[in-house]
Amino acid sequence: MTTSHAVVVGGGIAGLAAARVLAQGGVRVTVLEGSSQIGGKLRVSEIAGIPVDEGAESMLARRPEGMDLVRDLGRTADLVNPGTAASAIFSRGALRKLPAGQVMGVPSDLRALAASQVLSPAGLARVPLDLVLPETPRGGDVSVAGYIGARVGREVVDRLVEPLLGGVYAGRVERLSFESTLPAVAAAARGHRSLINAVQGIRAAAPKDPGPVFATLPDGLGTLPHLVAADIAAAGGTVRTGAMVRELRRREDGWRLTVGPARDPEYLDADAVLLALPAAPASRLLTPDVPAAARELAGIEYASMAIITLVYRTTAFPRLPKTSGYLVPAVECDPERGGRGVKAVTFSSVKWPHLRDRDPGVIAVRCSIGRFGEEHLLQRADEELTATAMAELAATCGVTELPAASRVTRWGGGLPQYNVGHADRVAKIRAAVAGAPGLAVAGAAYDGLGIPACIASARAAANRVLDHLRSREGVDHDRAGGQAEGTRTQ
Ligand SMILES: Cc1cc2nc3c(=O)[nH]c(=O)nc-3n(C[C@H](O)[C@H](O)[C@H](O)COP(=O)(O)OP(=O)(O)OC[C@H]3O[C@@H](n4cnc5c(N)ncnc54)[C@H](O)[C@@H]3O)c2cc1C
Question: Residue 60: helix, strand or coil by DSSP?
Answer without folding.
Answer: strand
